[in-house]
Amino acid sequence: MGTTKYHGILPTDHVRGNKSAKITLIEYGDFDCGYCREAFPIVEAALERFKGDIQFVFRHFPLNDLHPHAQSAAQASEAASLQGRFWEMHSKLFQVNALNEESLVRLATSIGLDLHKFGEDFADSKVVDKIAGDHKSGETLGISGAPSFFINGEAFHGNWLRGELESSLQSKLYDSSLHA
Questions:
Q1: Which of 22, 37, 66, 156 holds its CA 20 to 30 A away from the CA of 46?
Q2: Per-residue model confidence as pLDDT tens digits over 35-46
């Protein structure tokens, strides 16, 4: 396994929340992955619970061999990002079960994207390269599956389904308040 500690947020990252937060949660995810879909409401609840004390970073880790629509869903989110709507598309992608071309266009329409620009950006090499860069950074860290989480730069190895992710976040917040 590769390095399990990641240092820093990249300029190309999608970041949500307080940029000077005590906790940084990074997820490497795949929009076509059932486990990532299950993790979505858990992450959303944690973001709400720790609001003001957390920033969240999402990086693409499409498992194309397992999930046939992973790459196209990632491209849809990046095309939405170019219209300033990454987080809306991120949420929508995790809330649908069928990620085919028709559903991606329907989601783009539902969040008010310019469909012509969306189509052009979807196929742009910059979009594809961004996703590949995220994936490569995950591989460098030894990630082989999704979702994979890092909290304040350290790999999270617990069971996010059993509340361990939220407990780890709480622990990091407590630790940071002791050292403040």
A1: 66
A2: 999 999 999 999
Total residue count of the chain as it appears in this document = 180
Res 1: pLDDT: 38
Domains of the chain plus CATH, in order, are 14-73+128-178 (3.40.30.10)
H/E element holding 94? Answer: helix 86-94
**Dihedral sign (CA 129, 134, 137, 141):** negative
pLDDT (0 to 100) of residue 173: 83
Residue 63 class from Cβ within 10 Å (0-12 exposed, 13-18 middle, 19+ buried)? middle
Token reading at 128:
């594809």
pTM above 0.85, yes or no: yes
Pick out the chain residues at pLDDT < 70. Answer: 1-7, 176-180
φ, ψ at 17 (rounded to 5°): 105, -165
DSSP, collapsed to helix, strand or coil, labels residue 156 as coil
